Amino acid sequence: MAGVGPKDISLAELHDAFVIFELLNSEEVGFFERGTSFLGVRNGETEIGGRIPINTSGGLKAKGHPVGATGVSQIVELVRQLRGEAELQIVPGATHLFEEPGTLEAVQRLAADWFTRHLTRGQAGTG
Question: So what's the pLDDT on residue 40?
Answer without folding.
Answer: 96
